[in-house]
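User: structure tokens for this one?
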Amino acid sequence: MKVTEELIDQILEQGENGSLDPSPYMESLKYLLLEDEEVEMTEEDHAYMIFLGTICLESLKRNGLYKEIEDEELLFDMEDANWEAFEKADGDLDNFFDAIAEDFPERDLLDFLAFSILPTDDEEDDDQPVLSSEDAQILGFVRLKAMLDTVLLPAV
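Assistant:
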């Protein structure tokens, strides 16, 4: 693992201050904006996903791990693999996360995404959901994870 919590926090702070530019990553981030037949995403949902995606990609770039996504088909295959893992877990988010995190090379980045987007059962967490619905949260997480999977896939 190269991406640390400290680096993610530093980049997150830059993002919150408005000094993090997503434009170098827009070719990769545009995937997050695709319409879904089953889940309605709001403009705010898309903006938040771009924000999180930019933080993740910037974290990878600062560690020399970022590369442009050139094979869109591979991206869709990665998303399908994540959906399969979700179905195998019968929709249990804890089991799903454990399954996909097992071999993920940048665990701190995955933890950051999960914490930032997935719904929790924590009754003391009175914050509003970060995306407009639980389905949007899961879709957002799966797409962000697929994007990271594709970027982190070793070049052949």
